[in-house]
TrEMBL record:
PANTHER family: APOSPORY-ASSOCIATED PROTEIN C-RELATED (PTHR11122), GLUCOSE-6-PHOSPHATE 1-EPIMERASE (PTHR11122:SF13). It comes from Candidatus Gallionella acididurans. Pfam families: Aldose_epim (PF01263). Transmembrane segments: none annotated. This is Putative glucose-6-phosphate 1-epimerase.
Length: 303
């Protein structure tokens, strides 16, 4: 079994990247450089926090009730949804949003960028359990680059002789001052599936604002978007490539109470999910011998 000590010897960067074992037994990578700080759990390659040094408040939200446990997803951060998004098409017993966020990943590379940012690459560890749910030859790598900008690259490589289809998303929870005073711009005119409104297909008009449960899958759009946050006085820019779907989600009062791990009573008011991915009609065919890469970049500016 890989230990934090072994990882520090092989991949640690003095004063910049270190690995520690959490009380749960899971290993967490801690990054701190001249631009930002971040933490990432090796299970699920799950980025938990990111705060540029220019910001008083983190940009990536982690629930105060989040728990690290073997085989369980973490509430908040950036869960990796793969190789399907939402429920599995035919196997109801398979986990929602795929298995990538709850299985071990291994560190394969780390380093410092010329501008001082820190990068870390992890690869999903395949097992009999994963192969029973996804019997295809391939690899999944996530490279996280932590600086004043946060960049995440999710790369799926088909090493087999036949094509396969994936759904995916980087299910990012963003910290906001209050969901009722926030809005998302950049998706005006886009079609979306309204999962909180009877799964109807609708068209966005203007900015997205929030006054109740919102669960929308915007489709056929490569556009980035901006989260405007009056209370914290900042804009979070979301840029993406290799993605034709954007998901916008907030559970609101009733659903949040049923979930129980969102930092009750009103922790849900301090977050909004804006997820870049490929879902529903935008699932991706990865041809034999090719690679598909989903890239997101997050940057913050003051209002």
């Amino acid at each position: 079994m890989t230990t934090a000590q072994h990882l520090n010897t092989q991949f640690g960067i003095n004063g910049e990247l270190k690995f520690r074992e959490d009380a749960s037994g899971l290993i967490v990578a801690e990054i701190s450089n001249g631009q930002a700080s971040a933490s990432l759990c090796l299970q699920g390659a799950h980025l938990m926090t990111w705060k540029p040094n220019s910001q008083a408040v983190p940009v990536i939200w982690l629930s105060r009730d989040a728990k690290l446990a073997a085989g369980k997803s973490i509430r908040g951060g950036v869960p990796v949804c793969w190789p399907w998004f939402g429920a599995h098409a035919s196997e109801s017993a398979f986990p929602g949003h795929g298995y990538a966020r709850t299985v071990p990943w291994q560190v394969v590379e780390s380093g410092t960028e010329p501008d001082g940012a820190t990068h870390l690459t992890l690869r999903l560890v395949q097992s009999e359990k994963t192969r029973s749910q996804w019997p295809h030859a391939g690899t999944l790598d996530l490279t996280v680059t932590v600086g004043e900008t946060l960049r995440m690259e999710l790369a799926t490589e088909n090493t087999g002789a036949t094509d396969f289809v994936i759904g995916e998303a980087l299910h990012t929870y963003f910290r906001v001052g209050d969901i009722g005073g926030g809005r998302v711009k950049g998706l005006d005119g886009c079609d979306y599936w309204d999962k909180a409104g009877g799964s109807a297909l609708r068209k966005q008009s203007g900015a997205i604002s929030f006054s109740g449960e919102t669960d929308r899958v915007y489709i056929n759009t490569a556009a980035g978007c901006v989260i405007e946050d009056d209370k914290l006085g900042r804009r979070i820019h979301v840029a993406k490539s290799g993605s034709l779907s954007t998901v916008v989600w907030t559970p609101w009062t009733e659903k949040a109470a049923k979930m129980g791990d969102l930092g009750q009573p009103e922790g849900w008011r301090e977050m909004v999910c804006v997820e870049s991915g490929n879902a529903i009609e935008n699932v991706v065919n990865v041809a034999a011998g090719t690679r598909h890469t989903l890239i997101v970049e997050y940057q913050v500016e003051l209002l």
